[in-house]
Every structure is written in C-alpha cells, then in structure tokens.
Amino acid sequence: MAVKNFVLVCGGTACESTKGDEIFKALLKSATKHGIKDDVQIIKTGCFGFCEKGPIVKVLPEEEFYVEVTPEDAEDIIAETVVKGRTVERLAYKDASTKGSVSSEKIKFYQKQYRVVLRNCGLINPEDINEYIARDGYLALEKCLTGELTPDSVIEHLKVSGLRGRGGAGFPTWLKWNFSKNVTADQKYVVCNADEGDPGAYMDRSTCEGDPHSIIEAMAIAGFTCGADTGYIYIRAEYPLAIERLNIAIEQAKEAGLLGDNILGSDFSFNLEIRLGAGAFVCGEETALLASIEGKRGMPIPKPPFPAVKGLWGKPSIINNVETFANIPVILTKGGAWFKSIGTAGSPGTKVFALTGQIENSGLVEVPMGTTLRDIVFDIGGGIKNGRKFKAVQTGGPSGGVITEQFLDTPIDFDTLTSIGSMMGSGGMIVMSEDDCIVDVTKFYLEFCVEESCGKCSPCRIGTKKMHEILEKITSGKGEMDDIQKLKDIGKAMKTASLCGLGQTAANPVLSTLKYFEDEYLEHIQDGKCRAGSCKDLMQYKVVTEKCIGCTVCARKCPVNCIEGERKAPHFIVQEKCVKCGACYEACKFDAITIS
Amino acid sequence: MPTEEKLELPQHLLDFIEQWRNKQGNLIMILHKTQEHYGYIPRAAAIELAKILDVPLAKVYGVITFYHFFKLVKPGRNIISVCMGTACYIKGAGDLMAECETLLGCGVNCTTDDEEFSLQGVRCVGCCGLAPLITVGNEVYGKLSADKLPEILAKYRSK
User: Fold this and answer.
1) Which chain A residue has the Cα nearest residue B65?
2) Among A92, A508, A573, B42, which residue's beta carbon has the most beta carbons within 10 A?
3) What residues contact A180, with CB distance under 8 A and at least 6 apart?
C-alpha cells in the first residue's frame, strides 16, 4: 500500500533537547494504535531552521506546520490530521500579523530563504543513506568515477561557480584545490573543519546533523580531485549528535561501497575518519586545527607555506569548512554556471546564518548572497523581540564587528561586510536592541578572546588581556578619557603584529563598536551612565515618590536593608549601601522603582 | 615526596588504546576516551597513558591543559553548564550564572562540598533559539530565567 502521509519531526539538537525524540516515538505509537502504520511514514529529519518555535512537526502533503509540539500532542496530530485530514488549530503556526494559521509554504520565515546548503535538512532522514541518494546524492561522486568528471573539470566547475570558502575568509575554493592538486606528493589529505567554535553560531552543526552525507561525498570528491586517499573530519566534542550522525553516515557509505578501497569498483580509494576537538577556539584556524589532528597542542604556525602545499604531517592538505563542502555536490550536479547565477557577482551562492539574539524568530536561515540585512532581520526574523528598537547586528563573532541601522539596506556579501567594518565570519548573526549595552557586549567578546588566545604570540596574548582590562574599567565606571585612544592603539598593533587570524581580528569588535558607538563609550566614561542599563556598577535604583504607596515589600526584600521609609509613606534607597541586586525592582508591583 | 597512586586502566580502555596505538595523532582521541570513563583525567591515568604510548608525561599534560574540554579534577555528580554563547549572554546568561553560584554556594569551575554539583560556563551549546539556557548532564533547560533555577536544581539534588 502506498504511503499517504509523511510526518516529519525535527531531530536537530535544539528540538531534540526539547523532547523531539519522545514526540517521534509518541507519533509512532499513535499511528500503530490507529492501525495506520503503513499509510504514514514518520521520519526524524535534520533541523528545520525555525528553532524559535521548536519542536516542529510537519505533515505532508497537507503542508501542516505544527510548532512547540509536546509528546502529548502526538495523538491529536495522528488522529486529526493524518486520519481525518483536519488541522490541529492549537498547534498550527500563526502568522504574527494576521494571527491566522498558515501552512508551511506561506510562512514568512521561509519565504525569502533559498536553500542550497540546507537542501536536505528537514526533508530527509539523515540516518538513511538511501534518502540522500534519492535526492541525487552521490551522483557527483559517481560522475567522477565513471569519467564524466575529471579532476580538471571539477576544478573548472568550481572556478566557474565562484564558490568562496564559507569558514570566514572567503578564499576561492577552486584555487585552494588547485594548489593541492598541482603539488606532487606521496600522500595528501582532505580535512573538514567542523570545529564551529564561534559563540552564537550553529550552521555547521545543523548541516552535520541534517545532511552528513553531503559532507562525506564532497570530501571524497576533493580526494579524487587532488589525489588524496585519506580524509579527516575535525569536529567539536560538544556536538555529540552531529558526531553520531556522521559516524552512522560513514558506516553506511562504507557498506554501500561509496567510501573505502576501490570505490564503486574504480581504482580510487578514500577513507574517512573523525577526530574530535577538545574545546579550543583557536583550532578553527587551519594550521592550529592540523596541529590538533596531529595530537598536539593546537597552536598556529606562520603561513606560508599554506596547508594546501604543506599541511597535515607536512603533506599537502585541503581544508574546507562544513558549509563549503556541503555546496560542492550540488554545484557538480547542477553545474558551476547554475551556482554562479545565485547571489552577487563577487560572492555567488547562498549563506547560512544563525540568526539569534533579540529577535522574534531566531533560527537558521539560508539566503542568497546580496540579501539585505533588513530582509533578514525584519522579514525573515520578524523584527525585534517585544517591539524594542533595533540597535545593531553583530556578525563574524569574536572576529567581526557591528552593522548599524544605516547599513540595513546594504546587500550583504563577503566584500560589502568587510567594507563596512564587519566580516562574514562563519555566519553568526546576533541581533541587538536598545536594551543591549554595546560596551558590555564588546567586553564579552574580548573576554572570550582572552580565554581562547593560545598564548604563542605576545600581541594577541597581552593585547586581548589589556583591552579586556580597559573595558572592565569602563563598564564599572572607572574609565578615563585616554582609554579610548589606548584601545585604538592596542587594536591596531594587534591587527598588524599577531601571528594568526584569531589575534589579527580579536580587536575588530572593539574597533568597530568604537567607530559607530563611540558616544556610548563616552557616556560610560564621562557621565557614568549606561543607557541600556546592563552595566550594573553604573546603575542606580531609585524610588519614584509619586508612585510609591509605602507597602514596604521592597524594604523587606532588600538583602542589605538599604531601603528606608515609614509604612504607607514613600520609601527611599540609601545609595551608598545599595548592592544593585535588583530585588526591589522585581518585587515592586507599582512600578515605583526605576533604574537610571 | 608523596608516592604516586597506582591505577589500573580498565580493559575496554586498554583495548581502545591498542586499536589506536599505530594511528598518528592518537593522543587526543585516547584522552577523550579516558575522560569518558573517569569523568576527568586522573594523574595516575595520565602517567599510565604516557608509559603505554611511550611519550613524555609532560607532553600528555601539555595537551590536557591546552584544551578546555579536559578536566584534571573530579567533577560533581551533576555537571551544570551555563551556556555563555553570545545569544545566551545578551539574554541574561550572566544572571543565571550568578544565581547558580548563589544557590549552590560554589563558584564557576568548582564543585560543591558534598560533590553533588559542579558549575561551569560553556561556549555555545548551539541551541541559540532556546537562549538563555543551562544543561544539567544531558538535559537542556532553555528559555530560562533565574527564578526557575531552584526548581531545576531540586530535581537533581541527592538523586
């Protein structure tokens, strides 16, 4: 009997951690109970991207899009939607403006998206190689092995496509592959960088979880192109689900004869192994990553020679990140020209962003290069949370900078972002509202860099620490006017003198925020004021006399007894004793306590 | 000088080491497996590994101390990780951390006296849609506020 319905359950980390697996099991149980187990196929897929509303369940062909589902809802989904064809209204996604339920193809979050990298995420079961193959998976590898594609034509396709590395720097992929291909060596390697250490970014994790075979296929093609027979996937140990799915995929590919010795009966052999990272951000830098695979401390070394010529154990090695690899099979099946037609002239293709922060719809979005920030934040992202005012978007993580309101309509690609003082980075996009203090967020990034600096070169080791100290001073109200110039000077020195990308870019958050938000720094220093109210040391809690009815709740809540006043008369706060814990503010039912 | 405590590595770990012995760059993978078994890397185990793999103990420690993931001290029964990724940070991860410290009476990267809980900050769990969040063991608690923490901790106390 033919399958009538498909029920897709999100199996990404975010949904999985909110009972995705229990929902999956409950759906199976309900389907069995209703005797329709053979009419409906229940599949656990990769990430749908709409993490804000997870866990998500999608029913096809009805295109029902159910959000914030719990295991208890499984029965209704099966009994109502699958059996009777009705929508379960309480679970259906509601449009924010019309409040009406909408089917999945009409959801604004998806309308401006274009999925190339995430083409299979949320659609196929990542633990079944046949589903990947049914979506033209391993077709490109097959073409390589049957002679339809040669190493030269693969390079040509990549050249025409204009694909640039998605790890951050945007180096043309074909050039990298070509370097490695043209070196003569007895051994070469292919390495996938899945050490996504950038805080607030999880594009690569979702790709590994949702479509692991696309990475494996692309790595085998890289091996075929440059003559490597061994590959390593270097992945964060903090991503257990992604590791599991990759392991399953590697095993299945081996069984199917798509990995291992003499692939598909040809004389090409390619073996793949997973190596775990151990929580060091600097290992995202390629030479540090290679040192880590070699089992050593992950410290970078000066370039050149580049890894494509002299890499892992001194042998030529191609290193690309997950997203770059995931693009490659589809470029080879659809052709370089097809890829080139998407995006902008200088940066063809799409980019996956992890849209997070103060935004209504946080999640994973994939858009053509050249999409404006306004489209991403307001159309896809649904605007700022709680109707607050937009302040800035931070891209590029600890190496990037802020994009302010004036650039909302700039089409974003590798080059425009650099020209406005930020960078593409791996794809983290953190939206900030008027409630976020720019100095505090910058301090956060510096603190990150202080911890993650490997310590090998002094500009980075000392520079990050000194800058963090200055920011600490400013946010605690002890800043001085010449601190601003000091920050700029240290930043410039780090940019020119640091050994690797981490140190060269660690000052970017500071320099970029100083460029666009110097007034906020000055406010902290000169007026002792934090307009967002996040720097606790600069805050003052005060009682609004007109609103205070003297209920004494605040005085009783205060842990240091610094609120005084008679019952039924306005109270006041003794500032010298106040520890700024905010307990009074939380406790007051009459909004009589303000923060300034 | 205190005498070093001797430790016998369990058989499955020895098997794993044997399997990886001839692979290049095996040290990190073996350390992962060791930590998986003990919850941390005991000094005695590090000494054993150095002997078995025939590498200087200093090299083993060089690697352990470089990476945040490897622990040198035995953690508590429940490990509480407060996500300190950017998305969580701007949504109040700092307050969650402060509240955890108060509730547990122990600081970051420390273990409570009764060895019930360890508290740590982690870099991005990759569930930014659930920010701010903490994880206790393998459970993720998302979209949190400080007032929900006592209830969560109570679930794990003396379990």
Assistant:
1) A297
2) A508
3) A188, A226, A228, A308, A309, A316, A317, A318
